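User: Structure please.
Assistant: Input sequence and predicted structure:
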Amino acid sequence: MNQEYQKVENEAQKQRFFNVLLQVLDDLEILAKVPYILTPNYFHKLQKFLCKDDLECIKYFLVSSCEVRKTTEFGAADDNSAHFMSIIKKNNPLLEHIRTQQNMEPTVLHLIEFINTVLGLFQDRLSFTGVEAIEINQKLRAAYHRNKFYKERIEFFTKQQQTLEEELGGVLSQQTAILDGCKVEIEAAQKANKKLMEEKMKQTLKIMSDQTQISEEKQEFLVEEFETIKSEYDNLLISHIEIEKKLRAKRSKAEAQLHSWITKYDTDIGDKQAEFEKLTEQYEELDKIYVKLEEDTVEQEPIYEQCVEEKEAEQEEVHNQCSIVFLLNRSARRIQRYWRLYHLKVSKRRKKA
């Protein structure tokens, strides 16, 4: 129970500490913006947020501050800052207006940033309990020992690497001698390949000459085939010319028919145009009638509104009369009921007497 109580008490103290710091930050942010809103150009805007007494009080503080500082610029109100802050905090609209300002005093801004940093450090440090802090220290010690062990292993492996590099140097010299021998063998193989390629080229030239002769024979055959195809093409061209003549005759016939259709279309479109113009005239006459009806409607609208007002007044009068009749009937029933009760009481008293 004592441990739980101590834990709760520590949490409460920590929360109170954080609340105090947050309140200090809020006051500092307000103080950092106050010098900018108390300039002569901006001071007249505060009149809509302050009453006459508070405004006169603030003016007095500012004038006394300027006299002490021997300057014409408005600054903080010296020893009266606490009372000045109390006036601001009691006025919620003024407080919200000050918080919306962007300009801040650079010196106070640096102090706010420093307190925010300190608050973050306190939150990080106070977020751990004593047991958690001991566990973290133990983990850090274990990490330090592991780091030391790995560092020793790295030094050991570095020495092994140096020894291995020295051993590999000897192996490299041996491999270099082997490569020199391979180069000699490669040169001999290149010479043999060159001789083989020359023989292959001779054989290829012979094959190409044979294929050229065969190609010439094929070319002669293709020339003969070209002559045959040309004669067939001429015959086909003559037949196509005859077909074209027939198609031209059909085309001229179709053009004549199309011309007659176009003439008929022009005649029909003229009739339709006349009908369209007639309908347009009818539409314009109806449009004029519609405009005139709209003007009549606009002229009659005040009369309509007057009728509506008279109707509402009559309805209200009828409702009032009904309400009066209802109240009179209700009052009469109550009077009758009270009169019967009174008459009954009087009769009972007389009987007793």
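Residues 11-132 form one domain.
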